[in-house]
Amino acid sequence: FEVLRHLLILHLLWAALVFCQYEDYDFEDEYGGEPDHQVPYYFNPDAQVEARFPFPVECAKECFCPPAFPLSMYCDHRKLKIIPNIPSHVQQLYLQNNNIEAVPAGPFTNVTFIREINLSYNNIKFHMIDHGVFAKLSHLVQLHLQHNELEEFPFPLPSSLERLLLSFNNISRLPANAMEGLPNMTTLDLCNNLLDDSVFKEKPFSNMKNLMQLNLCNNKLQTMPPDLPPSLRHLSLENNSISHIPENYFHRLPHIIALRMSHNNLQDIPHNTFNLPNLLELNLGHNKLKQVFYIPRSLQHLYIEDNEIENINVTVMCPALDPLNIKQLTYIRVDQNKLTSPISTYAFFCFPLIRTIYYGEQNVTVSRPSQLRTPVFRRFLTPEEFQEAEDNHETLNQETEEDHEAEDSYFHPYYH
């Protein structure tokens, strides 16, 4: 028994030594750079292709392969001009923030299992990408190419691809054949490019049956994109020049959860345009709207700031009361309009879950903006909700005790 006790103590000391070695290891010291600001993409470990190899793992001399993450190779922020050779076992390759201008086939010759490639913040042009270099990567799930110099959509691509990020390039064309054979694509980000209405003539998105998020913000669109797949959940069209939404446009997109169309030229919206069963967020700020519209039961957040609305007609937003299907609206932002009085108290019967109405300043006169006595209406916030509102700048620092008294007298009778 005494011998076993000594062996156990030795084993514990050895385990503590190994643990301390890893505890003292500073990833940042060897990585030598600030963490990239982009949101990381997390893979399900069970979904990764199993790879067995001896340690230490093979790694390009220009890069860093952390022992704790043997399937990843970090080559970012290294002033690289060319892509180093990639070991066959690598599944995540990080090459962002370099000076890379070309994507040749050579470095990818032995690549078998790669699932994510990040080539953002480089100087890559379309004609400098070897034809088919990405298409051969049959396990590739996510490809980052934002903040480059691409003039065209980087096709062909592998059918396995799910997320493609192409914002901040110079893409002006979307050939229909460029997006064929992408049945698994769920997210496509094309914001901040040079796309205009002509790109829709060939219906580039119509066959993307699983597309859930499409970002087309900061382009040159003047009309709503036609023939979008019914699978869409999130549609981003901010900062374009769209002036009209055709009636019944969203009948083909019943699953939309979030629609963002701020900073366009919208003036009149058909009454039932947004009668969608799953819509949670609607952002129409910074347009030229003069009237409100029907609010679906599911909507929670409505942004209509910086428009030309003089009166918010609650009966248009809520034609009838249905106690069995109450509307879910909790937040409205209406600052920078032309309101001279708060929203009618009838709104609190139609939208009993409203917690915040942000009035802010109103553009009643050309000379200077004015402020309602109640810049922010807020009802029964928990401490956590109040802190969230503060963090989101939903309150004005200039509020006075008089303002709060006005809120109390105006709204509280309905919520005792």
UniProtKB/TrEMBL annotation:
Residues 1-20 form the signal peptide. GO terms for biological process: cell adhesion. It is found in: Secreted, Extracellular space, Extracellular matrix. SMART domains: LRR_BAC, LRR_TYP, LRRNT. Keywords: Cell adhesion, Disulfide bond, Extracellular matrix, Glycoprotein, Leucine-rich repeat, Proteoglycan, Repeat, Secreted, Signal, Sulfation. The keyword Repeat applies. Residues 58-92 form the LRRNT domain. InterPro entries: Leu-rich_rpt, Leu-rich_rpt_typical-subtyp, LRR_dom_sf, LRRNT, SLRP. May be implicated in biomineralization processes. Has a function in binding of osteoblasts via the alpha(V)beta(3)-integrin. Binds the alpha(V)beta(3)-integrin. Belongs to the small leucine-rich proteoglycan (SLRP) family. SLRP class II subfamily. This is Osteomodulin. The gene is Omd.
